[in-house]
């Protein structure tokens, strides 16, 4: 029987989403989750593969705008909801859906496709590279101390934590204030996503069945001079043993506009009564927390892959970001899955902007689309990729020049999953 790939219809959503749940082990999502993801589904950008009456595969994308080095917001298709029915795996269903999705992304003129992977080994073959990493920190707050620089002569409230007030608020009541802070943070870190309509509900999603013994979500606002300058959203998972309380603060997100607000929020979280640990699932690899603690070992930091990124249009993507140092290199790009990118590209740029166009000039560096994806947001260096044999230097000096230029001053990071 031949399979039929077609755009998702509203009436088919339940069946389509059911296949996704089946692919993920068959545990149905909660009604809150289903309602939210249905509302956020972009039907015009979602596809299914039908085998007779059954949905054999599901996939789709969101229309994001993502911060890139230099602070521009670039259209990025957020590939999502990929699932293949267990009876249909390893027959090319994902491959056919990915081809269809990436052709659509190209037709819409979006230079990038991004995703978070259930398993990191799946998407390299489709030209995605790991563009951001996250750290998972499990801080032993019974041992780790915060060392907050306190200078009594500093009266500027952006540094003096004394000027910051921490206020508890219901997460829903604080939504608008948090969103204002978030919006001001987006362009400061590559990989962050400008909020699209409806997406402010994602960080508030808190189904009872998924709390795993933790409290409902709490929110604290950091305020200075009458303005909200930061927030943290967290739950508390109480626990007791024969020595007493051993609760954990489960941190969902923390954003701050000033060092003082950040320090004040962490101080609040470290000090919560009846807790002795903070479980922070996703922080940037250069999160300032690592510079505020006196014992990084007891923060039990683990690094993992996070955002996988693909350049769908090499020329537009490389011209959309800026470069930390002047760069003028010819890249010989191979791209088996999106062959329209294959060939030589001259990239010329600096901290103000860049151009990238096809050329017949001799190549300086040879690499595939996957390596460009890994290096694009400035978190993984071309030199590190070359060390693994994944980038080849064809002109002496070109690797160092390009490697420095591609790096970002702050580590790229994705603030939330999708
Ligand atoms: C962005 C997101 O939504 S991530 C979520 C992805 N979904 C899941 O993990 C749910 C459970 N898994 C599944 O639904 C499926 O197994 C999928 C989607 C991962 C793969 O779908 P399939 O239709 O089996 O993939 P397809 O047959 O096109 O395989 C393409 C290639 O990827 C490889 N591949 C597929 N899955 C994996 C995997 N989990 N790890 C490593 N390689 C994989 C295949 O071996 C094949 O390799 P080849 O080209 O060398 O032969």
UniProtKB/TrEMBL annotation:
Q: Which GO terms describe its biological process?
A: aminoglycoside antibiotic catabolic process
Which residues take part in binding acetyl-CoA? 82-84, 90-95, 118-119
InterPro entries, per database record = Acetyltransf_17 (IPR041380), Acetyltransferase_Eis (IPR051554), Acyl_CoA_acyltransferase (IPR016181), Eis_dom (IPR025559), GNAT_dom (IPR000182), NAcTrfase_Eis (IPR022902), SCP2_sterol-bd_dom_sf (IPR036527)
Protein's UniProt keywords contain Transcription: no
The residue ranges crossing the membrane are: none
What UniProt keywords are attached to this protein's entry?
Acyltransferase, Transferase
Q: Name one GO molecular function term.
A: aminoglycoside N-acetyltransferase activity
Does the UniProt entry include the keyword Transmembrane?
A: no
Which Pfam families has this protein been placed in? Acetyltransf_17, Acetyltransf_9, SCP2_2
Q: Where is the active site?
A: 123, 418
- Can you give the residue ranges of the N-acetyltransferase domain? 3-151
Quaternary structure, per UniProt, is: Homohexamer; trimer of dimers.
Question: Which family does this protein fall into?
Answer: Belongs to the acetyltransferase Eis family.
* HAMAP family reported for this sequence: Eis
Q: What is this protein called?
A: GNAT family N-acetyltransferase
Q: Taxonomically, what lineage is the organism?
A: Bacteria, Bacillati, Actinomycetota, Actinomycetes, Kitasatosporales
């Amino acid at each position: 029987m031949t399979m039929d790939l077609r755009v998702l219809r509203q009436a088919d959503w339940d069946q389509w989403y059911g296949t996704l749940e089946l692919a993920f082990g068959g545990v149905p999502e909660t009604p809150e989750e289903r309602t939210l993801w249905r509302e956020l589904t972009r039907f015009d950008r979602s596809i299914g593969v039908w085998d007779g009456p059954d949905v054999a595969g599901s996939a789709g994308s969101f229309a994001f705008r993502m911060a890139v080095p230099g602070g521009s917001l670039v259209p990025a298709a957020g590939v999502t909801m990929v699932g293949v029915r267990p009876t249909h795996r390893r027959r090319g269903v994902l491959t056919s859906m990915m081809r269809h999705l990436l052709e659509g992304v190209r037709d819409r003129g979006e230079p990038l496709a991004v995703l978070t992977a259930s398993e990191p080994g799946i998407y390299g073959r489709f030209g995605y590279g790991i563009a951001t990493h996250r750290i998972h920190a499990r801080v032993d707050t019974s041992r780790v101390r915060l060392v907050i620089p306190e200078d009594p002569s500093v009266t500027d409230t952006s540094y003096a934590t004394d000027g910051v007030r921490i206020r508890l608020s219901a997460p829903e009541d604080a939504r608008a204030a948090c969103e204002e802070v978030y919006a001001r943070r987006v362009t400061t870190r590559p990989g962050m996503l400008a909020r699209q309509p409806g997406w402010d509900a994602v960080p508030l999603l808190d189904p009872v069945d998924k709390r795993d013994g933790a409290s409902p979500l709490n929110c604290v606002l950091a305020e200075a001079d009458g303005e909200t300058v930061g927030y943290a959203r967290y739950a508390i998972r109480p626990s007791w043993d024969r020595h007493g309380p051993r609760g954990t603060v489960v941190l969902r997100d923390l954003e701050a506009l000033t060092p003082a607000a950040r320090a004040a929020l962490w101080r609040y979280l470290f000090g919560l009564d009846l807790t002795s640990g903070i479980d922070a699932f996703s922080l940037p690899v250069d999160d300032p927390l690592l510079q505020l603690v006196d014992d990084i070992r007891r923060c039990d930091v683990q690094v993992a892959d996070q955002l996988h990124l693909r350049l769908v249009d090499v020329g537009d993507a490389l011209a959309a970001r800026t470069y930390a140092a002047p760069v003028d290199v010819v890249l010989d790009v191979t791209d088996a899955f999106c062959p329209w990118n294959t060939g030589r590209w001259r990239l010329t740029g600096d901290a103000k902007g860049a151009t990238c166009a096809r050329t017949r000039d001799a190549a300086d560096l040879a690499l595939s689309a996957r390596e460009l994806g890994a290096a694009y947001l400035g978190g993984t260096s071309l030199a590190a990729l070359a060390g693994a044999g994944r980038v080849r230097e064809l002109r002496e000096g070109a690797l160092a020049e390009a490697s420095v230029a591609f790096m970002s001053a702050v580590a790229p990071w994705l603030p939330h999953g999708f």
